[in-house]
């Protein structure tokens, strides 16, 4: 076996056996800040858009929809680019430069003198925050196969933590000044980049890097990677269906809870905090021990099964407290996505991890383009038929549950040879 090439200048060497604990902490914080920065805008960005449009709420709703579409498109196109760049030049420079780019972009948004500049900022944030794919590739580089599901679960906890804290911070800061949340997000991203410069070692040795090419750095080329292995293809299909089902929540939850149970903003905000905390508990505390005991395939079964049960409960619930009973089941859905990411990463070598995670991020971008339309139309169709007893206003939840049934079938087929935990 050949000797690994020495680290390049400016690349701290990764310690034998894995990176320093601070390195994983940095990656965790990076993902949490990315998610927090997305959530921090929720209370204030629609208001800023409406202010720029003279308070026209109809026009603001249409333009705000374009903001979301543009963000998803940038994630779709640029996640594979950053993933391929990290396979070629290493994870460290891509993650650090992305942190800097995100921070500077939030400064642009904080200073935006017009809605056009605000839109440009949103586009740039979609490009720079595509670094989540590189963060997942970093974890795949430095984590043994049998421990990846637990580490991916921890990154899922970072998602939940960011979504819990983001809207809360955004609401408080936005009450002082609607541009203050952007300054807070900028400061967090730039400080994290400075911290990472000192603590983040490179995880991909030079001898394991892959050449950069157009085929590797575009979304269609990245998605062809998912056809490299029959099991990988099946897992990717199941993962996409699960991602698509996830867009039920940001699309119709607020409308559904307001219409069916008469909940106000405060009650809905409290529920969202509970959902986020439940996700943190499951992904940060339960996935690791669960996968060690029973293996990734069992985690897939548990995750998809609990997600289906939880969504059906919430779609049928005639009163609010029954809807809340579905939250623990929906939170356990997180087992499936962490296990899927782990199984997919095990089917490719180190030089392909960035490309794999870029492809997965592109799948999320496609889901982000299709999901809102699918679930909003399902909800509108259900409300347009008030005389029907089924499916009623819970129709979008049954659509999402159906997608999870398909995801479970495909994933079980793809992993049919894996019936026991890894030794």
From TrEMBL:
The chain crosses the membrane at residues 23-46, 58-82, 94-117, 123-140, 152-174, 180-200, 236-256, 268-286, 298-316, 322-340, 361-382, 394-414. It comes from the Bacteria. InterPro entries: MFS, MFS_dom, MFS_trans_sf, Sugar_transporter_CS, Tet-R_TetA/multi-R_MdtG-like. It is found in: Membrane. SUPFAM superfamilies: MFS general substrate transporter (SSF103473). One of its GO terms (cellular component) is membrane. CDD domains: MFS_TetA. It is a multi-pass membrane protein. Resistance to tetracycline by an active tetracycline efflux. This is an energy-dependent process that decreases the accumulation of the antibiotic in whole cells. This protein functions as a metal-tetracycline/H(+) antiporter. This is Tetracycline resistance protein, class C. It comes from Rhodoplanes serenus. The gene is tetA.
């Amino acid at each position: 076996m050949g000797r690994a090439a020495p680290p390049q200048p400016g690349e701290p060497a990764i310690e034998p056996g894995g990176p320093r604990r601070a390195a994983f902490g940095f990656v965790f914080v990076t993902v949490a800040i990315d998610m927090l920065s997305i959530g921090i805008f929720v209370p204030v960005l629609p208001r800023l858009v409406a202010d720029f449009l003279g308070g026209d709420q109809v026009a603001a709703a249409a333009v705000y929809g374009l903001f979301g579409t543009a963000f998803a498109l940038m994630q779709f196109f640029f996640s594979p680019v950053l993933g391929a760049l990290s396979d070629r030049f290493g994870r460290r420079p891509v993650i650090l430069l992305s942190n800097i780019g995100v921070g500077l972009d939030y400064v642009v948004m904080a200073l935006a003198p017009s809605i056009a500049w605000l839109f440009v900022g949103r586009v740039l944030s979609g490009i720079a925050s595509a670094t989540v794919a590189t963060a997942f590739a970093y974890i795949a580089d430095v984590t043994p196969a049998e421990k990846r599901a637990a580490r991916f679960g921890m990154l899922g906890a970072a998602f939940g933590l960011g979504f819990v804290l983001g809207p809360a911070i955004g609401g408080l800061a936005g009450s002082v000044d609607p541009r203050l949340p952007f300054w807070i997000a900028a400061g967090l991203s730039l400080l994290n980049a400075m911290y990472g410069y000192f603590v983040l070692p490179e995880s991909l040795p030079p001898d394991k890097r892959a050449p950069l090419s157009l085929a590797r750095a575009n979304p269609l080329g990245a998605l062809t990677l998912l056809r490299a292995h029959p099991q990988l293809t099946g897992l990717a299909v199941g993962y996409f269906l699960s991602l698509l089902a996830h867009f039920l929540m940001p699309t119709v939850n607020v409308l559904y809870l307001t219409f069916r149970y008469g909940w106000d903003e405060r009650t809905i905000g409290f529920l969202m905090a509970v959902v986020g905390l439940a996700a943190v508990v499951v992904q940060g505390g339960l996935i690791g021990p669960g996968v060690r005991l029973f293996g990734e395939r069992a985690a897939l079964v548990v995750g998809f099964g609990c997600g289906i049960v939880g969504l059906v409960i919430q779609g049928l619930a005639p009163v609010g407290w029954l809807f809340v009973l579905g939250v623990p089941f929906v939170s356990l859905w997180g087992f499936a996505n962490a296990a899927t990411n782990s199984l997919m990463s095990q089917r490719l070598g180190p030089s392909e991890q960035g490309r794999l995670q870029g492809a997965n991020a592109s799948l999320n971008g496609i889901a982000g383009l299709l999901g809102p339309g699918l679930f909003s139309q399902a909800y509108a169709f259900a409300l347009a038929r008030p005389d029907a007893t089924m499916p009623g206003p819970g129709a979008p939840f049954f659509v999402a549950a159906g997608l999870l049934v398909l995801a479970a079938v495909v994933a079980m087929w793809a992993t049919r040879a894996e019936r026991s935990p890894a030794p």
